[in-house]
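Quick start: what a row looks like.
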Amino acid sequence: MVAIFRCAVAGFILALMLQTGPAAAQDYPTRSVKIIVPFGAGGPADVFARVLAQHLSDDLKQSFIVEDRPGAGSIIGTDAVAKSPPDGYTLLVMSNTHTTNESLIPNKPFELMRDFVPVAPINYSDLIMVVHPSVPAKTLAEFIALAKKDSGKLNYASSGAGTPYHMAGELFKAMSGTNIVHVPHKASGEARNSVIGGHVQMMFDAVPTMLPNVMAGQVRALATTGKTRGTLTPDIPTVAEGGVPGYEATIWLGMMAPKGTPAAIVDKLNAEIRRIVAKPAVKDAWQKQGASPMVMTPAEFDAYLRQDIEKWASVVQRSGAKAQ
């Protein structure tokens, strides 16, 4: 009887293991999937996550539901995903905030490459440096001169410590030799409103979300942060052109899942995301907003993340950035 019982248990365990393999992935998803965005509503991560969720819902015939959980520079929402079952039904939309935070905020309740598995990148965008119209600087050179003249009196907004907006600002300070005070917010929408309202003088923001405000005259664009001028902003010089040679900063987005999520499910999600970002309608819509699709296998994305962690660790050390 004991032998029979042991065989039955072994068979049950084997059946469970098989369910987490290719057969489970073939049926996945069989219920709603939650996509947690650890940033505020209206920012690039939220906007593009909803586009991706709609296409995943249509293509896989199950609801992919976006839930924004901002706070603590992405840590609150990210930790919630880290503690979720590794079954493919809770996913994380992340950005270079996460790779920066590995060095900027070492005492987190999770480690990115220990507690998550890379699924796929989504897209990337250049940033745009804007000031409130009341700032007496029409060019980047004039702004740098003003910042040096009034050292420590100008402020810049971000959506929190470690975000691309924060690190773009710290990199700018380090490379331009200026002292500008960081004013963190809970979400990019709040930071954007602070600059538009004139409460904070300057901000680096994603082109897709800030360009409409530039066109409406609510803020003045001084520069963009790519290697070359953007197709949507051909008349706006890059930071490197404007007086800070070698400067470059972008924001990119990707998807990860809790460590232990079956490889077959990760591969299926990767294939679906690659197919979605390759759709002409998606590519055209994103390019009109200043975003470009990124395509990698899970292994390639893993390598990309590790390289980005090293890159931003160097920037954190060089700039002296703090998690404030």
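That is the whole record. The chain has two domains: 2-124+251-319, 126-242. The beta strands are 33-37, 64-68, 90-95, 116-131, 155-158, 181-184, 202-206, 220-224, 250-258, 291-293.
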